[in-house]
């Protein structure tokens, strides 16, 4: 990794690069956040150190060994010793506590237990770590090592302070709290300071332990860390998980024209929210808010102004509660904010938001709350929102509309534009309303709103028949100036591209139906943790593709889409397992996220569907019953992968560990090399001998494969046989000569297949290690 250009002057001229604070003050009256920030910037060694020789210490799964060297206590952070620097010879080893994380560690580093020798170790802590390490060490006098440690501490700051102004969110939150906690952060390397590793224990994450390395996408102003593995602490305690919960949001949004002559819209907002503390000793709280939005003030329930920190390069902010909050305490906050750049109106008539998820101050991304919205906007536009519309009034040339959510939801959004709408109310279905932008000077296909509405209504009809009623009464489908789609409760933002163009091969139908399916998967049934994201995206992708098969009455498009996904999955070597969830998007290769969570997730349901289909009648009632049971059992709740597995096992009355271990928790990508040998048997009959090598899988891999045989009279015989690695042999008796044999018919297994010559298979077929007539596990 090339050495980045360093800007040491930023640490001398910090005043020029401070974030925007509510009340600029001199250093004697600085906020606690500013003090911690400045203390980290000014970290340095003192005149004391300790001699280290053969000193071991550990934090959860991370084991450190200081073979020989010196450890220097660094200058205080917020008047406490919280950082130290070791220079010398040391080592680190770590084995994750979860098997899936151990496999991920090996995939990314080649080691099941990571071992690494270092010469530099920086420690940041919020407990008695330093006392523990130096309990039996010799105290030495030392000269300050400013010249020697300048580059080291500059590297440390680069990873803790982003763009020289904003503390890392998780680190800042822990340091700002009013109690001692389990924060532990290690930054270490051997000879190349530009390729460090990191070991972090953060008390506010549900999975507290994180092992990381440098990220190749870093810049000299924002040094990123790429996560290798993450897992819970071995001994969970009361510190795990979120520290507060927002009970309700009351959001007022005004969008007037910027000026009389301008078509651009300003953005002004006020969010009132009520929170309850889930943990004691909370002082500073963080919220997400888009970097383009400027905060004017934050008030408490008494109208007192609170200190806050908001930087224009990041989508989060910190608020000083003004007091120490105990577990169970409630806090009411009022945020006032504005932006001239958050909304952008294009020459073609679209109005885009900088970001659909951070348009109001929010805590977390998965926590549900009640929402009330009040929107004020020019009467020439129309607006749709999540929730149900309560009122709509026009005064002069402005409209004020109120919306409310009848149940708690996790994500909220709206869409505004020059829309023309078309709607349909069909019996036993939610009402569907499609809003298409009236464009200016841009050619659009005619009646695309009707085309979109047809796919949405047909999807609603199909999914309601399969699963039951979704948790909405009206579904708004609005054209949005983006290249992707987003689904919210009762609202879908569909890309403008699906209104402008038509891609053959089922692409548009899949895209529209996928977003519609989210009303069941992701909204009706929410996913429990970041690892379970496939229960939303993979399920929606499969149901969207299933709709394509039914709507277009075309099995070829359905199977060709699966084949295209399969080939890409095989081409993307060393894929992460599905159960890493959203971390795939934050990892070493973020582009894998779409292929694994969406497409491989859909493939898993497709394989389950093929396993359960009646090959004689092609009846799919067992699979449909499983999906219906899962949906209705967890409607309005959060479900995990194990919950889905339990439903499958209940219907099949058998253990399904083998299936989920291979495809969800593991990362099997089998290659079947098979040979067939038809032999005449009797007067008219035939026997077909099969031999299958299974490669690129773990020991014990097993999977049923569908075989379709077309006979000389045109009849098609179908059967399913269990294939076990590494070698399987079996035979099939037929009443007449086979015309064509299709191994892995219907793409029944996510696998590459290659037919090989029977002559090269004879010895394997006769081998004692082959399993004859492999039985179901």
Automatic annotation (TrEMBL):
Show which residues constitute the signal peptide. Answer: 1-22
Which InterPro entries has this protein been placed in?
Aminopeptidase_N-like_N_sf (IPR042097), Peptidase_M1_aminopeptidases (IPR050344), Peptidase_M1_dom (IPR014782), Peptidase_M4/M1_CTD_sf (IPR027268)
Q: Mind listing the UniProt keywords for this protein, alphabetically?
A: Signal
GO cellular component terms listed in the entry, alphabetical order: cytoplasm; extracellular space; membrane
Database matches in Pfam families? Peptidase_M1
**Start and end residues of each Peptidase M1 membrane alanine aminopeptidase domain:** 514-663
Q: Which GO terms describe its biological process?
A: peptide catabolic process
GO molecular function: any one?
metalloaminopeptidase activity
- What is this protein's record name? Peptidase M1 membrane alanine aminopeptidase domain-containing protein
The species is: Caldithrix abyssi
